[in-house]
Design goal:
The longest helix has about 35 residues. The chain has 20 helices and no strands. It is about 75% helix and about 0% strand. By secondary structure, it is mostly helical. It has one domain: Up-down Bundle (Amino acid/polyamine transporter I), CATH 1.20.1740.10. It is globular, with a radius of gyration of 22 Å.
Protein backbone atom coordinates (compact mmCIF):
# COMPACT_ATOMS: atom_id res chain seq x y z
CA UNK A 1 0.00 0.00 0.00
CA UNK A 2 2.84 2.40 0.78
CA UNK A 3 4.02 2.22 -2.88
CA UNK A 4 0.65 3.27 -4.24
CA UNK A 5 -0.34 6.91 -4.75
CA UNK A 6 -2.83 7.95 -2.08
CA UNK A 7 -5.81 10.18 -2.74
CA UNK A 8 -7.86 12.12 -0.20
CA UNK A 9 -11.51 12.53 0.71
CA UNK A 10 -13.05 15.66 -0.81
CA UNK A 11 -15.81 17.80 0.70
CA UNK A 12 -18.25 17.63 -2.20
CA UNK A 13 -21.66 17.13 -0.55
CA UNK A 14 -23.93 20.04 0.28
CA UNK A 15 -26.85 20.12 2.73
CA UNK A 16 -29.40 18.74 0.25
CA UNK A 17 -27.12 15.83 -0.71
CA UNK A 18 -26.55 15.00 2.99
CA UNK A 19 -30.33 15.18 3.55
CA UNK A 20 -30.97 12.87 0.58
CA UNK A 21 -28.45 10.32 1.86
CA UNK A 22 -29.96 10.42 5.36
CA UNK A 23 -33.44 9.73 4.01
CA UNK A 24 -32.37 7.12 1.46
CA UNK A 25 -30.36 5.25 4.12
CA UNK A 26 -33.59 4.80 6.11
CA UNK A 27 -36.43 4.35 3.63
CA UNK A 28 -36.42 0.72 2.55
CA UNK A 29 -38.53 -2.43 2.64
CA UNK A 30 -39.75 -1.82 6.20
CA UNK A 31 -42.48 0.64 5.19
CA UNK A 32 -44.01 -1.96 2.87
CA UNK A 33 -43.90 -4.98 5.17
CA UNK A 34 -43.77 -4.14 8.89
CA UNK A 35 -47.36 -2.93 9.32
CA UNK A 36 -48.64 -6.52 8.99
CA UNK A 37 -46.63 -8.16 11.82
CA UNK A 38 -47.25 -5.07 13.97
CA UNK A 39 -51.00 -5.49 13.37
CA UNK A 40 -50.78 -9.15 14.32
CA UNK A 41 -48.97 -8.21 17.53
CA UNK A 42 -51.31 -5.42 18.68
CA UNK A 43 -54.67 -6.15 16.93
CA UNK A 44 -55.46 -2.44 16.98
CA UNK A 45 -54.95 0.07 14.14
CA UNK A 46 -54.65 3.00 16.56
CA UNK A 47 -51.94 1.21 18.56
CA UNK A 48 -50.06 0.34 15.35
CA UNK A 49 -50.07 3.99 14.26
CA UNK A 50 -49.07 5.03 17.78
CA UNK A 51 -46.04 2.71 17.53
CA UNK A 52 -44.98 4.25 14.21
CA UNK A 53 -45.30 7.74 15.69
CA UNK A 54 -43.59 6.85 18.96
CA UNK A 55 -40.73 4.99 17.24
CA UNK A 56 -40.28 8.00 14.95
CA UNK A 57 -40.21 10.45 17.86
CA UNK A 58 -37.69 8.29 19.74
CA UNK A 59 -35.54 8.17 16.60
CA UNK A 60 -35.85 11.95 16.37
CA UNK A 61 -34.68 12.29 19.99
CA UNK A 62 -31.67 10.19 19.02
CA UNK A 63 -31.01 12.34 15.96
CA UNK A 64 -31.28 15.55 18.00
CA UNK A 65 -28.76 14.19 20.49
CA UNK A 66 -26.47 12.78 17.80
CA UNK A 67 -26.53 16.12 15.96
CA UNK A 68 -24.89 17.99 18.84
CA UNK A 69 -22.01 15.50 18.97
CA UNK A 70 -21.70 15.54 15.17
CA UNK A 71 -21.50 19.35 15.09
CA UNK A 72 -18.60 19.27 17.59
CA UNK A 73 -16.58 16.24 16.51
CA UNK A 74 -17.45 15.91 12.82
CA UNK A 75 -15.07 13.70 10.79
CA UNK A 76 -15.17 10.65 8.53
CA UNK A 77 -16.16 7.63 10.60
CA UNK A 78 -19.11 9.02 12.57
CA UNK A 79 -19.55 7.43 15.99
CA UNK A 80 -16.14 5.76 15.84
CA UNK A 81 -14.54 9.22 15.92
CA UNK A 82 -16.96 10.44 18.58
CA UNK A 83 -16.34 7.49 20.90
CA UNK A 84 -12.57 7.86 20.67
CA UNK A 85 -12.91 11.32 22.20
CA UNK A 86 -15.86 10.69 24.53
CA UNK A 87 -14.90 7.25 25.89
CA UNK A 88 -11.77 5.38 24.81
CA UNK A 89 -10.15 3.50 21.96
CA UNK A 90 -11.59 0.12 22.95
CA UNK A 91 -15.24 1.25 23.01
CA UNK A 92 -14.76 3.03 19.68
CA UNK A 93 -13.27 -0.12 18.19
CA UNK A 94 -16.11 -2.25 19.57
CA UNK A 95 -18.58 0.01 17.78
CA UNK A 96 -16.66 -0.17 14.51
CA UNK A 97 -16.21 -3.93 14.69
CA UNK A 98 -19.90 -4.48 15.51
CA UNK A 99 -20.84 -2.31 12.53
CA UNK A 100 -18.62 -4.39 10.25
CA UNK A 101 -19.40 -7.85 11.62
CA UNK A 102 -23.13 -7.42 12.29
CA UNK A 103 -24.98 -4.14 11.90
CA UNK A 104 -24.01 -2.52 8.60
CA UNK A 105 -22.97 -5.64 6.68
CA UNK A 106 -26.10 -7.51 7.76
CA UNK A 107 -28.22 -4.51 6.75
CA UNK A 108 -26.66 -4.47 3.28
CA UNK A 109 -27.10 -8.24 2.95
CA UNK A 110 -30.71 -8.13 4.09
CA UNK A 111 -31.80 -5.19 1.91
CA UNK A 112 -30.05 -6.62 -1.15
CA UNK A 113 -31.64 -10.01 -0.50
CA UNK A 114 -35.12 -8.44 -0.37
CA UNK A 115 -34.36 -6.84 -3.75
CA UNK A 116 -33.43 -10.23 -5.20
CA UNK A 117 -36.51 -11.89 -3.68
CA UNK A 118 -38.75 -9.19 -5.18
CA UNK A 119 -37.06 -9.62 -8.55
CA UNK A 120 -37.60 -13.39 -8.27
CA UNK A 121 -41.35 -12.91 -7.83
CA UNK A 122 -41.49 -10.92 -11.09
CA UNK A 123 -39.01 -13.01 -13.06
CA UNK A 124 -38.18 -16.41 -11.51
CA UNK A 125 -34.46 -17.01 -11.18
CA UNK A 126 -32.79 -20.36 -11.98
CA UNK A 127 -32.12 -22.70 -9.07
CA UNK A 128 -29.60 -25.50 -8.54
CA UNK A 129 -30.64 -29.17 -8.35
CA UNK A 130 -31.91 -30.35 -4.97
CA UNK A 131 -28.79 -32.49 -4.48
CA UNK A 132 -26.67 -29.31 -4.45
CA UNK A 133 -29.19 -27.09 -2.66
CA UNK A 134 -29.20 -29.43 0.34
CA UNK A 135 -25.42 -29.36 0.82
CA UNK A 136 -24.63 -27.89 4.25
CA UNK A 137 -21.51 -26.75 6.06
CA UNK A 138 -21.23 -27.82 9.71
CA UNK A 139 -24.92 -28.70 9.57
CA UNK A 140 -25.76 -24.97 9.79
CA UNK A 141 -24.96 -23.13 6.55
CA UNK A 142 -26.55 -24.01 3.20
CA UNK A 143 -24.70 -21.81 0.68
CA UNK A 144 -26.39 -23.31 -2.40
CA UNK A 145 -29.97 -23.19 -1.13
CA UNK A 146 -32.08 -20.64 -3.05
CA UNK A 147 -28.90 -20.01 -5.03
CA UNK A 148 -30.50 -17.97 -7.82
CA UNK A 149 -31.69 -15.32 -5.34
CA UNK A 150 -28.36 -15.40 -3.49
CA UNK A 151 -26.41 -15.04 -6.73
CA UNK A 152 -28.42 -11.98 -7.78
CA UNK A 153 -27.95 -10.53 -4.28
CA UNK A 154 -24.16 -10.86 -4.59
CA UNK A 155 -24.20 -9.41 -8.12
CA UNK A 156 -26.15 -6.40 -6.80
CA UNK A 157 -23.69 -5.90 -3.92
CA UNK A 158 -20.76 -6.07 -6.34
CA UNK A 159 -22.40 -3.67 -8.82
CA UNK A 160 -23.27 -1.09 -6.17
CA UNK A 161 -19.81 -1.38 -4.64
CA UNK A 162 -18.34 -0.65 -8.06
CA UNK A 163 -20.59 2.40 -8.56
CA UNK A 164 -19.48 3.80 -5.20
CA UNK A 165 -15.87 2.80 -5.88
CA UNK A 166 -15.97 5.10 -8.91
CA UNK A 167 -16.86 8.19 -6.88
CA UNK A 168 -19.05 9.60 -4.13
CA UNK A 169 -21.04 11.88 -6.43
CA UNK A 170 -22.06 8.98 -8.66
CA UNK A 171 -23.37 6.98 -5.70
CA UNK A 172 -25.11 10.03 -4.23
CA UNK A 173 -26.62 10.90 -7.60
CA UNK A 174 -28.03 7.38 -7.94
CA UNK A 175 -29.55 7.56 -4.45
CA UNK A 176 -31.00 11.00 -5.20
CA UNK A 177 -32.69 9.93 -8.43
CA UNK A 178 -34.17 6.79 -6.91
CA UNK A 179 -35.39 8.58 -3.78
CA UNK A 180 -37.20 11.24 -5.83
CA UNK A 181 -38.97 8.53 -7.85
CA UNK A 182 -39.83 6.51 -4.74
CA UNK A 183 -41.15 9.53 -2.83
CA UNK A 184 -43.32 10.61 -5.77
CA UNK A 185 -44.81 7.13 -6.07
CA UNK A 186 -45.42 6.84 -2.33
CA UNK A 187 -47.26 10.16 -2.52
CA UNK A 188 -49.34 8.74 -5.38
CA UNK A 189 -50.25 5.63 -3.35
CA UNK A 190 -51.32 7.80 -0.40
CA UNK A 191 -53.42 10.05 -2.65
CA UNK A 192 -55.13 7.16 -4.46
CA UNK A 193 -55.58 5.13 -1.29
CA UNK A 194 -57.32 7.98 0.54
CA UNK A 195 -59.52 8.95 -2.44
CA UNK A 196 -60.41 5.86 -4.51
CA UNK A 197 -59.09 3.14 -2.18
CA UNK A 198 -62.53 2.19 -0.88
CA UNK A 199 -61.35 2.58 2.68
CA UNK A 200 -63.07 4.00 5.72
CA UNK A 201 -62.19 5.88 8.89
CA UNK A 202 -64.08 3.13 10.66
CA UNK A 203 -61.20 0.81 9.76
CA UNK A 204 -58.95 3.04 11.88
CA UNK A 205 -61.17 2.74 14.95
CA UNK A 206 -62.26 -0.89 14.71
CA UNK A 207 -60.04 -3.40 16.51
CA UNK A 208 -59.39 -6.96 15.36
CA UNK A 209 -61.25 -10.01 16.56
CA UNK A 210 -59.52 -11.15 19.73
CA UNK A 211 -58.42 -7.69 20.83
CA UNK A 212 -58.55 -7.19 24.60
CA UNK A 213 -58.71 -3.66 25.96
CA UNK A 214 -56.05 -3.28 28.66
CA UNK A 215 -54.77 -0.35 30.75
CA UNK A 216 -51.59 1.33 29.54
CA UNK A 217 -49.56 -0.09 32.45
CA UNK A 218 -50.54 -3.71 31.67
CA UNK A 219 -47.40 -5.85 31.31
CA UNK A 220 -48.72 -7.72 28.28
CA UNK A 221 -49.58 -4.48 26.49
CA UNK A 222 -46.15 -3.01 27.23
CA UNK A 223 -44.39 -6.12 25.88
CA UNK A 224 -46.58 -6.06 22.77
CA UNK A 225 -45.85 -2.38 22.17
CA UNK A 226 -42.10 -2.97 22.49
CA UNK A 227 -42.28 -5.95 20.13
CA UNK A 228 -44.17 -3.87 17.57
CA UNK A 229 -41.77 -0.96 17.95
CA UNK A 230 -38.82 -3.28 17.29
CA UNK A 231 -40.35 -3.84 13.87
CA UNK A 232 -40.81 -0.10 13.40
CA UNK A 233 -37.26 0.62 14.54
CA UNK A 234 -35.94 -1.72 11.85
CA UNK A 235 -37.74 0.50 9.33
CA UNK A 236 -36.24 3.66 10.93
CA UNK A 237 -32.75 2.15 11.23
CA UNK A 238 -29.82 3.78 9.42
CA UNK A 239 -30.21 7.53 9.99
CA UNK A 240 -26.93 7.86 11.93
CA UNK A 241 -24.88 6.53 8.98
CA UNK A 242 -24.66 10.03 7.49
CA UNK A 243 -22.08 10.80 10.18
CA UNK A 244 -19.63 8.50 8.38
CA UNK A 245 -19.44 11.11 5.61
CA UNK A 246 -18.33 13.92 7.93
CA UNK A 247 -15.07 14.37 6.00
CA UNK A 248 -16.93 14.76 2.67
CA UNK A 249 -19.71 17.20 3.62
CA UNK A 250 -19.31 20.93 3.01
CA UNK A 251 -19.58 23.05 6.18
CA UNK A 252 -20.22 19.82 8.14
CA UNK A 253 -20.62 21.45 11.56
CA UNK A 254 -23.81 23.05 10.25
CA UNK A 255 -24.99 20.78 7.42
CA UNK A 256 -24.56 17.39 9.11
CA UNK A 257 -26.82 18.16 12.13
CA UNK A 258 -29.44 19.74 9.86
CA UNK A 259 -29.39 16.74 7.50
CA UNK A 260 -29.86 14.34 10.43
CA UNK A 261 -32.75 16.22 12.05
CA UNK A 262 -34.68 17.15 8.91
CA UNK A 263 -34.00 13.75 7.35
CA UNK A 264 -35.57 11.91 10.30
CA UNK A 265 -38.51 14.35 10.39
CA UNK A 266 -39.16 13.70 6.69
CA UNK A 267 -39.07 9.93 7.21
CA UNK A 268 -41.54 10.16 10.12
CA UNK A 269 -44.02 12.05 7.91
CA UNK A 270 -43.64 9.48 5.10
CA UNK A 271 -43.95 6.43 7.38
CA UNK A 272 -46.94 7.66 9.37
CA UNK A 273 -48.74 8.80 6.19
CA UNK A 274 -48.25 5.54 4.28
CA UNK A 275 -49.18 3.35 7.25
CA UNK A 276 -52.25 5.50 7.92
CA UNK A 277 -53.25 4.81 4.31
CA UNK A 278 -52.71 1.04 4.66
CA UNK A 279 -54.91 0.86 7.74
CA UNK A 280 -57.52 3.19 6.21
CA UNK A 281 -57.89 0.92 3.16
CA UNK A 282 -57.68 -2.55 4.79
CA UNK A 283 -59.48 -3.55 8.00
CA UNK A 284 -57.14 -4.71 10.75
CA UNK A 285 -58.36 -8.31 10.51
CA UNK A 286 -57.29 -8.46 6.86
CA UNK A 287 -53.91 -6.99 7.80
CA UNK A 288 -53.50 -9.71 10.43
CA UNK A 289 -54.29 -12.30 7.75
CA UNK A 290 -51.55 -10.80 5.56
CA UNK A 291 -49.10 -11.27 8.42
CA UNK A 292 -50.00 -14.95 8.72
CA UNK A 293 -49.51 -15.51 4.98
CA UNK A 294 -45.80 -16.15 4.47
CA UNK A 295 -45.60 -14.86 0.89
CA UNK A 296 -47.80 -11.75 1.23
CA UNK A 297 -46.57 -8.16 1.58
CA UNK A 298 -48.89 -5.62 3.19
CA UNK A 299 -48.32 -2.84 0.64
CA UNK A 300 -48.97 -5.20 -2.28
CA UNK A 301 -52.27 -6.39 -0.77
CA UNK A 302 -53.41 -2.83 -0.07
CA UNK A 303 -52.71 -1.53 -3.60
CA UNK A 304 -54.13 -4.71 -5.14
CA UNK A 305 -57.31 -4.00 -3.15
CA UNK A 306 -58.10 -0.87 -5.19
CA UNK A 307 -55.99 -1.20 -8.36
CA UNK A 308 -56.14 -4.95 -8.96
CA UNK A 309 -53.31 -6.91 -10.60
CA UNK A 310 -51.79 -3.86 -12.35
CA UNK A 311 -51.53 -2.23 -8.91
CA UNK A 312 -49.79 -5.31 -7.51
CA UNK A 313 -47.26 -5.16 -10.35
CA UNK A 314 -46.76 -1.42 -9.76
CA UNK A 315 -46.09 -1.79 -6.03
CA UNK A 316 -43.80 -4.77 -6.66
CA UNK A 317 -41.70 -2.64 -9.01
CA UNK A 318 -41.72 0.18 -6.44
CA UNK A 319 -40.44 -2.20 -3.74
CA UNK A 320 -37.73 -3.29 -6.16
CA UNK A 321 -36.74 0.33 -6.80
CA UNK A 322 -36.84 1.26 -3.09
CA UNK A 323 -34.67 -1.64 -1.96
CA UNK A 324 -32.23 -0.91 -4.78
CA UNK A 325 -31.86 2.68 -3.56
CA UNK A 326 -31.58 1.67 0.10
CA UNK A 327 -28.95 -0.95 -0.77
CA UNK A 328 -26.93 1.64 -2.67
CA UNK A 329 -26.86 4.08 0.25
CA UNK A 330 -26.14 1.26 2.71
CA UNK A 331 -23.15 0.23 0.56
CA UNK A 332 -21.92 3.82 0.21
CA UNK A 333 -21.53 5.00 3.81
CA UNK A 334 -19.97 2.34 6.13
CA UNK A 335 -16.62 2.03 4.26
CA UNK A 336 -15.82 5.54 5.54
CA UNK A 337 -16.03 4.08 9.05
CA UNK A 338 -13.66 1.20 8.20
CA UNK A 339 -11.31 3.67 6.51
CA UNK A 340 -11.23 5.80 9.66
CA UNK A 341 -10.49 2.73 11.82
CA UNK A 342 -7.73 1.52 9.49
CA UNK A 343 -6.18 4.98 9.42
CA UNK A 344 -5.67 4.67 13.20
CA UNK A 345 -4.39 1.07 13.02
CA UNK A 346 -7.63 -0.45 14.36
CA UNK A 347 -8.65 -2.34 11.21
CA UNK A 348 -7.02 -4.05 8.25
CA UNK A 349 -4.35 -1.51 7.35
CA UNK A 350 -4.96 -1.55 3.59
CA UNK A 351 -8.57 -0.38 4.20
CA UNK A 352 -7.13 3.11 4.84
CA UNK A 353 -6.32 3.49 1.12
CA UNK A 354 -8.06 6.34 -0.75
CA UNK A 355 -8.23 5.92 -4.51
CA UNK A 356 -6.05 8.62 -6.12
CA UNK A 357 -8.49 9.23 -8.99
CA UNK A 358 -11.92 8.59 -7.50
CA UNK A 359 -11.15 9.79 -3.94
CA UNK A 360 -13.10 6.95 -2.35
CA UNK A 361 -12.09 4.36 0.30
CA UNK A 362 -11.91 1.80 -2.50
CA UNK A 363 -10.35 -1.07 -0.56
CA UNK A 364 -12.72 -0.64 2.37
CA UNK A 365 -15.57 -0.92 -0.15
CA UNK A 366 -14.06 -4.17 -1.43
CA UNK A 367 -13.73 -5.79 2.00
CA UNK A 368 -17.30 -4.80 2.82
CA UNK A 369 -18.54 -6.40 -0.41
CA UNK A 370 -16.65 -9.63 0.29
CA UNK A 371 -17.84 -10.00 3.90
CA UNK A 372 -21.43 -9.11 3.01
CA UNK A 373 -21.38 -11.74 0.25
CA UNK A 374 -20.19 -14.32 2.78
CA UNK A 375 -23.17 -13.46 4.98
CA UNK A 376 -25.48 -13.86 1.99
CA UNK A 377 -24.09 -17.30 1.13
CA UNK A 378 -24.20 -18.45 4.75
CA UNK A 379 -27.85 -17.56 4.97
CA UNK A 380 -27.22 -16.46 8.56
CA UNK A 381 -27.88 -12.77 8.03
CA UNK A 382 -31.62 -13.14 8.75
CA UNK A 383 -30.72 -14.00 12.33
CA UNK A 384 -28.17 -11.21 12.41
CA UNK A 385 -30.84 -8.66 11.51
CA UNK A 386 -32.88 -9.82 14.52
CA UNK A 387 -29.98 -8.60 16.63
CA UNK A 388 -29.37 -5.44 14.62
CA UNK A 389 -31.77 -3.16 16.49
CA UNK A 390 -30.54 -4.48 19.86
CA UNK A 391 -26.89 -3.79 19.01
CA UNK A 392 -27.68 -0.42 17.42
CA UNK A 393 -29.47 0.93 20.49
CA UNK A 394 -26.53 0.13 22.75
CA UNK A 395 -24.47 2.59 20.73
CA UNK A 396 -27.29 5.06 20.11
CA UNK A 397 -27.64 5.36 23.87
CA UNK A 398 -23.87 5.78 24.26
CA UNK A 399 -23.92 8.70 21.81
CA UNK A 400 -26.76 10.43 23.68
CA UNK A 401 -24.89 9.90 26.97
CA UNK A 402 -21.93 11.58 25.29
CA UNK A 403 -23.93 14.83 25.15
CA UNK A 404 -23.91 14.96 28.97
CA UNK A 405 -20.27 13.87 29.21
CA UNK A 406 -19.02 16.52 26.78
CA UNK A 407 -21.17 19.23 28.39
CA UNK A 408 -19.28 18.41 31.62
CA UNK A 409 -15.79 17.79 30.19
CA UNK A 410 -15.82 20.51 27.50
CA UNK A 411 -18.32 23.16 28.65
CA UNK A 412 -16.71 25.96 26.64
CA UNK A 413 -16.13 24.04 23.39
CA UNK A 414 -17.88 25.49 20.30
CA UNK A 415 -21.23 23.84 19.67
CA UNK A 416 -22.61 24.91 16.28
CA UNK A 417 -25.75 22.98 17.20
CA UNK A 418 -27.05 22.31 20.72
CA UNK A 419 -29.45 19.43 21.33
CA UNK A 420 -33.00 20.78 21.36
CA UNK A 421 -34.74 20.12 24.67
CA UNK A 422 -31.53 19.41 26.60
CA UNK A 423 -31.36 17.76 29.12
CA UNK A 424 -34.83 16.19 28.77
CA UNK A 425 -34.60 14.97 25.14
CA UNK A 426 -31.27 13.10 25.42
CA UNK A 427 -32.24 11.78 28.89
CA UNK A 428 -35.53 10.38 27.56
CA UNK A 429 -33.70 8.76 24.67
CA UNK A 430 -31.12 7.16 27.00
CA UNK A 431 -33.85 5.78 29.26
CA UNK A 432 -35.67 4.34 26.27
CA UNK A 433 -32.47 2.71 25.00
CA UNK A 434 -31.97 1.09 28.41
CA UNK A 435 -35.60 -0.10 28.45
CA UNK A 436 -35.34 -1.57 24.94
CA UNK A 437 -32.06 -3.34 25.77
CA UNK A 438 -33.51 -4.79 28.99
CA UNK A 439 -36.76 -5.84 27.30
CA UNK A 440 -34.87 -7.57 24.48
CA UNK A 441 -32.63 -9.41 26.96
CA UNK A 442 -35.73 -10.71 28.76
CA UNK A 443 -37.97 -11.38 25.76
CA UNK A 444 -35.33 -12.60 23.29
CA UNK A 445 -32.31 -13.65 25.34
CA UNK A 446 -30.92 -15.92 22.61
CA UNK A 447 -30.70 -13.16 20.02
CA UNK A 448 -29.46 -10.59 22.54
CA UNK A 449 -26.70 -12.80 23.97
CA UNK A 450 -25.66 -13.95 20.50
CA UNK A 451 -25.45 -10.30 19.47
CA UNK A 452 -23.25 -9.51 22.46
CA UNK A 453 -21.11 -12.55 21.63
CA UNK A 454 -20.58 -11.36 18.05
CA UNK A 455 -19.62 -7.93 19.34
CA UNK A 456 -16.98 -9.54 21.55
CA UNK A 457 -15.46 -11.52 18.67
CA UNK A 458 -13.61 -8.31 17.90
CA UNK A 459 -11.64 -8.44 21.16
CA UNK A 460 -8.80 -10.64 19.79
CA UNK A 461 -8.51 -8.34 16.76
CA UNK A 462 -8.42 -5.31 19.05
CA UNK A 463 -5.63 -6.79 21.17
CA UNK A 464 -3.61 -7.64 18.06
CA UNK A 465 -4.06 -4.28 16.30
CA UNK A 466 -3.65 -2.33 19.53
CA UNK A 467 -0.32 -3.98 20.34
CA UNK A 468 0.84 -3.52 16.76
CA UNK A 469 -0.11 0.17 16.81
CA UNK A 470 1.56 0.77 20.17
CA UNK A 471 4.71 -1.01 18.99
CA UNK A 472 4.90 1.16 15.86
CA UNK A 473 4.55 4.32 17.95
CA UNK A 474 7.32 3.21 20.35
CA UNK A 475 9.74 2.12 17.62
Amino acid sequence: MTNQPQGQLIRSLGLFSAFILTVSSVIGSGMYKKVAPMSDELLSPSLVLLCWIFAGLISLCGALSNAEIASMLVDSGGEYVYYRKIYNRFFAFLYGWTSFAVVRSASLASISYVFAQSFNTLLPLPQLPASMSEISLFGIFTPFNNFGVKALTIVLIAALSYVNYRGLKGGEGLSRGILILVTANIGLIILLGLTIGGGSYQNLTTNAVGFVDRPWYDQGLIKGMFAAMLAAFWAYEGWSSTGYLGGEIKNPNRNLPLALVFGVLFVIVVYVSINFTYLYVLPIDEMVAVSKSQNSIAAVEVVKHFLGSPGALFISLLILLTTFGAANTTALMPPRLYYSMAREGMFFRWASFIHPTYHTPSKALMIQAVWTSVLVLSGSFDQLTDMLVFASFIFYGATALGVFILRYKMPDAPRPYKAWGYPIVPAVFILFCLALIATTLMARPREALLGLGLMLTGVPFYLYWSRKEDASKNS
